[in-house]
Specification:
The protein is mostly helical and 259 residues long. The chain has 10 helices and 4 strands. The chain folds into 2 domains: 80 residues; 144 residues, no CATH class. The chain has a two-stranded parallel sheet. A two-stranded antiparallel sheet has the order 2-3. A hairpin with a 5-residue loop joins strand 2 and strand 3. The C terminus is likely disordered. This is Integral membrane protein.
Length: 259
């Protein structure tokens, strides 16, 4: 027998074997108790998994799992298309599963919390005085000295507020026990800590207003607005880069990474 007829015979036997395997698979789907449409879906899914190169062991596992889901869905009148879409798309999904997005750990480092708060406080005060200079220029010009509108006072108040509240937010967070569970601090404790922080910050604010103009100059209104916006942008960048969890100006969600 020549080589060509032998190859043709081998190819024919392979086709027959493949056809018999498909028929056996089809009978298995029919015996599983699926509806006609669900049987057809499984038959097409089987073909698509083969066409897309699914490993034999994985294919059997996926088909069995899909049959079980279809049987459960039939009780609630759910269709294969409603559950999985088209056989082609579902086969691709099984072969190329989407990677689950890894939950980022939120950062509760005290220094980062302080920097986050300080930038936000600076942005608030700088923009506030900049807008005030635009809308009511006389309100600032009538002051005997620059006081809290001076740039040095704004910086000091922002730094003090950032450090204070960065530390205080750390103090009032739930305590992490040895077993990993969290225990909330008592309400009286949290209120006391916050009140103490506010009183201290207001004292710093009052002292900052007494700075002499020579070391506490008042900037141009545009400078205040630009610096405030720059601080706000810097704070957003800091939060995004380090995933900072801050209860004072909004918290990110995720797993806590306390440093």
């Amino acid at each position: 027998m020549s080589e060509q007829p032998r190859n043709a015979a081998a190819g024919q036997r392979q086709k027959q074997h493949h056809k018999a395997a498909q028929q056996a698979t089809g009978r298995a789907f029919a015996d599983a108790g699926l509806t006609r449409k669900n049987e057809e879906f499984m038959f097409q899914l089987n073909k698509q998994l083969e066409a897309q190169g699914a490993p034999a062991d994985k294919k059997a596992e996926w088909l069995q799992a899909t049959v079980e889901q279809l049987l459960a869905g039939q009780k609630d009148a759910k269709t294969a298309k409603g559950l999985f879409g088209t056989p082609t798309a579902y086969a691709h999904e099984l072969l190329h599963p989407k990677k689950e997005e890894v939950e980022r750990q939120v950062n509760t480092n005290t220094w980062l919390l302080a920097a986050d708060n300080a930038l936000m406080f600076f942005a608030i005060f700088a923009i506030m005085f900049g807008v005030l200079a635009f809308t009511s220029p006389k309100a600032l010009s009538m002051q005997s000295h620059n006081g809290n509108a001076g740039i040095t006072a704004i910086i000091l108040v922002a730094l003090a507020g950032g450090a204070l509240f960065g530390f205080l937010m750390k103090m009032i967070r739930p305590k992490v026990k040895a077993d990993g569970s969290q225990e909330k601090r008592p309400m009286w404790y949290r209120i006391s800590v916050i009140v103490l922080g506010l009183v201290t910050w207001m004292a710093v604010y009052g002292l900052a207003t007494m700075l002499p103009d020579a070391i506490n100059p008042q900037l141009n209104k545009w400078a205040y607005v630009i610096l405030g916006l720059a601080a706000f942008a810097g704070d957003l960048y800091l939060r995004t880069k380090f995933n900072i969890a801050n209860a004072l100006f909004g918290a990110n969600h995720g797993k806590t990474n306390a440093n």
